[in-house]
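Query structure, 233 tokens:
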């Protein structure tokens, strides 16, 4: 089973700043964002040095109960009710992190509106701790990696749901417009006279980078280092 502290140890014991070249050399992946997800997956499964794909996949199955998809959080969940992991790749070490349609989460809940049925049913669970893994990759180099627990980073879901509900209710209250039920902020049907145009109204959530959110900690980021890893628990 994967373990957060062991994952940190594995990452620090394997000097691999150029992770994009490492995974591309194995014909594993092309997209840089996916490269970071594979790296996070490997340090939790302790499979960075494993070259046998069958053994690697067996280790993944023993470590994770859920592997995620491109559109719904989380990206990974540790087996037996362990932590959920959301991987975010950016270039800048200070720019905001795009969360798209999902607001920040202090915890992951099985009844969350963005959770898929596969995620909800992979195990018997209701609430999990959530780790944000935020990596800065520029020119294929992983220069900065933050691991931060959601309850150190985000407010309770009631805070975000309140804002979301107010906006969604206000949109639906617009007179003379035909709406349909959606997980987004709203969907307008038959906008044009022919009734063939539809409008999706989506929330696009961002959150400040931990470098900015926790600048009061006066961390020495040592920008000249090959790879810097920080964990906030």
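Result returned for the query:
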């Amino acid at each position: 089973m994967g373990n957060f502290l062991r994952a940190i140890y594995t990452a620090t014991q394997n000097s691999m700043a150029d992770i994009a070249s490492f995974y591309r050399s194995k014909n594993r992946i092309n997209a840089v964002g996916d490269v970071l997800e594979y790296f996070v997956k490997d340090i939790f499964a302790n499979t960075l040095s494993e070259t046998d794909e069958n053994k690697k996949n067996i280790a993944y199955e023993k470590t994770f109960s859920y592997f995620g998809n491109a559109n719904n959080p989380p990206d990974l969940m540790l087996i037996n009710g362990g932590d959920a992991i959301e991987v975010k790749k950016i270039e800048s070490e200070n720019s905001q992190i795009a969360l798209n349609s999902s607001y920040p989460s202090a915890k992951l809940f099985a009844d969350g509106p963005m959770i898929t049925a596969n995620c909800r049913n992979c195990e018997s669970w209701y609430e999990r701790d959530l780790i944000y893994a935020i990596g800065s990759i520029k020119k294929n180099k992983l220069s900065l990696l933050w691991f931060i627990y959601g309850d150190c980073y985000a407010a309770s879901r009631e805070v975000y749901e309140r804002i979301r509900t107010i906006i969604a209710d206000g949109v639906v209250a617009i007179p003379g417009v035909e709406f349909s039920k959606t997980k987004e902020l709203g969907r307008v049907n038959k906008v044009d006279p022919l009734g063939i145009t539809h409008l999706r109204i989506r929330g696009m959530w961002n959150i400040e980078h931990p470098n900015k959110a926790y600048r009061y900690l006066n961390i020495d980021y040592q920008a000249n280092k090959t790879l810097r890893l920080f964990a906030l628990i």
